[in-house]
Amino acid sequence: MYLKTLGENAVNAKYTIGLLSEEKRNDVLLKVADALLKNTDYLIAQNKIDYDKGVSENMKASLLDRLMIDEKRIEGIAEGIRQVASLEDPLNRVLSEKTLANGMHITKISVPLGVIGIIYESRPNVTALTFKSGNVCILKGGSDAINSNMAITKVIRDVLKEENVDENAVQLIEKTDRETAGEFMKLNEYVDVLIPRGSAGLIKAVVNNSTIPVIETGSGNCHVYVDKDADIDMAVNIIFNAKTQRIGVCNACESLVVHKDIREALLPKLAAKLKEKDVEIRGDKDTKEIIDCVDATEEDFGKEYLDYIISVKTVSSVEEAIAHINKYNTSHSDCIVTNDKEAADKFLKGVDSACVYHNVSTRFTDGFEFGLGAEIGISTQKLHARGPMGLNELTSYKYTITGNGQVRG
Amino acid sequence: MYLKTLGENAVNAKYTIGLLSEEKRNDVLLKVADALLKNTDYLIAQNKIDYDKGVSENMKASLLDRLMIDEKRIEGIAEGIRQVASLEDPLNRVLSEKTLANGMHITKISVPLGVIGIIYESRPNVTALTFKSGNVCILKGGSDAINSNMAITKVIRDVLKEENVDENAVQLIEKTDRETAGEFMKLNEYVDVLIPRGSAGLIKAVVNNSTIPVIETGSGNCHVYVDKDADIDMAVNIIFNAKTQRIGVCNACESLVVHKDIREALLPKLAAKLKEKDVEIRGDKDTKEIIDCVDATEEDFGKEYLDYIISVKTVSSVEEAIAHINKYNTSHSDCIVTNDKEAADKFLKGVDSACVYHNVSTRFTDGFEFGLGAEIGISTQKLHARGPMGLNELTSYKYTITGNGQVRG
Description:
The structure is a homodimer. By secondary structure, the first copy, chain A, is α/β, with parallel strands linked by helices. The first copy, chain A, has helices spanning 2-17, 22-38, 40-56, 61-67, 71-86, 127-132, 146-162, 178-184, 200-209, 232-244, 263-275, 285-288, 298-301, 318-328, 341-350, and strands at 94-99, 105-112, 115-120, 136-140, 170-172, 193-197, 222-226, 253-259, 280-283, 294-295, 309-315, 333-337, 355-360, 377-379, 387-389, 395-406. The first copy, chain A, folds into two domains: 2-217 and 389-402, 3-Layer(aba) Sandwich (Aldehyde Dehydrogenase, Chain A, domain 1), CATH 3.40.605; 222-364, Aldehyde Dehydrogenase, Chain A, domain 2, CATH 3.40.309. In chain A, 41% of the residues lie in helices and 21% in strands. In chain A, helix 2 runs antiparallel to helix 5 (71-86), helix 2 (22-38) crosses helix 7 (146-162) and helix 10 (232-244) packs parallel to helix 11 (263-275). The longest helix of chain A is centred in the N-terminal third of the chain and has 17 residues, at 22-38. Chain A is globular and about 70 Å long.
């Protein structure tokens, strides 16, 4: 009943939010940014309730850090919202247009997805993207951050109300129990799309339990393959960057694939470089012949470590590399380092991932880096959107057809 | 275990099928068309087993007719396949391209979805579309048509084998029990997308039980709204066409919405015209004041009759019409008949459907009519594709990024 009311509110709101002018949507976003800054004390006080509870329950330091809101972070959130306001409008783009022989004119035009459900483990920084794209959102956060989420949502909804915009454009599910989450995932009557953001476990649970269409994001077992004709320094540089520049992200390199003919030239140099950051190498038999390392098991090749660990598999050809990567990757981002144009073409075509790189670090898979301006996540599925998802990926389209009485014969 | 093997076969096939040249894919399709014609006797004999079983089990005449294969229908199937071969290639289209400041070049290029599961109640006429778009398919038909489906699949697979193409590009699930269907819908490890084709009940069951992303197609409760400033003859003509030209299709009009100010001028003329086809009218109170008709209940407004029945609701404004339609439609196709440009704009923007018409019959929502060349179905969801789905809608995309050693700072 509780969720049904939220669902009905959202559906009612979607018909007006999608029709707001670009100016109005941007204006509201700027006012939300101002209001968050103005309410800094309130937000920090509410966040402190969650934070203190986390401390008393021995929450991990990294999670506590993610939970914490201070003045600087609120400034960061406000700045992010202002930036979204400045991006190009994803709505009302004419995607194609034609007049048929019978005089009917068909226009394909971008429209909001409608009601987007967002299930997230950390803070709601995506509301600006859903609002900018004319969508209505229903947010479901965890119990750990409930007071912070309620406070942020309250500030946003107060602005919407003041601006005469349906405040149900942004709703938070205030019940944090498991049953409510389960019911939310079956709210097909009201919710058009569900986007889970967070751990691989959270995303898998949503995929397995939701009857609403889900956009799967996040999980990344990314590979760098060094071909036999590669520039060794470039390879070492790319692998070091992809593995260690930031270990906890989905586009970090987790597994290395090396052509047998280059392993002697590459592996000792690479091992020395990775030692700078104390990266643990887990290699197969042919790797161990060249460098000291831990034994890699079958399980290692399929693992997203998110840690200072990398697995190494040796192969005899680019074809074998492609087959290995297609078997173990998560279809996120994979890279070939080679000077051989033909091998690169095979790899770019053959590896079935959202982003396939040639002589570039996998760390570039990112909405900002790709020039989308912002991102709501990185899709690892094939339907709708693949790779970094920006504002355009939060839209659907409709056909409008105009004529003068055409009927079908 | 049986499905796991089919899944593994499909995944192995997808890496080669997606890389076949356009010429090869078209050539194979033309050979499949020839082979179906050559095997006419065999196909008819196998179909007769299903047909006779249907007769002995008192299958409905309309279903028997749909099940039956004769020489003419095989010619039609072959002709359809030839037509698909002649369509533009949906693969390897460069969707966008740019070079970033750091020299990285990003290309967004269309690729197959991968493994498409198709659950269908009637015959497999979609295999040509999936193959043309570089996809691998796993087909699941009903027990009623199992011998026909096995025969058609055999003919196709024999051609693939002869042409040195992985025959697992097309596989049929030969077990027709319910449990196998249930397991198939959870084959996420192997299947990228599931497309159910058939009754509203079948589609709903798949949406509720599948953990694989589903493309929802088909169900259509389409409306025609006649505004107060409409051309009466045009309105009667469009409604008559949309309601009666073919009653069993998803783009047929099921419900009429009429502005109160025009009901006296419209309804008697319309009732007289609909009488030609013995259409039953179910109207609200304000309709009954003008013409003789059956009482419309709340349930009528949400119903896809697929029959010679139409419901009529009267409203006082275009806004009320939009709200009524958004409440009861299936987001498929809806039409406004009006000479008032402003009302038309409101309707085209405000009605949340895949196809919204102004002064055109809803019957045009169709891949062939829209110039897509063919269609695999009409999507009524917001993700991925909306409205008629042709070859392009059977593709995803990938980003390929090339550079000379770029790393992220």
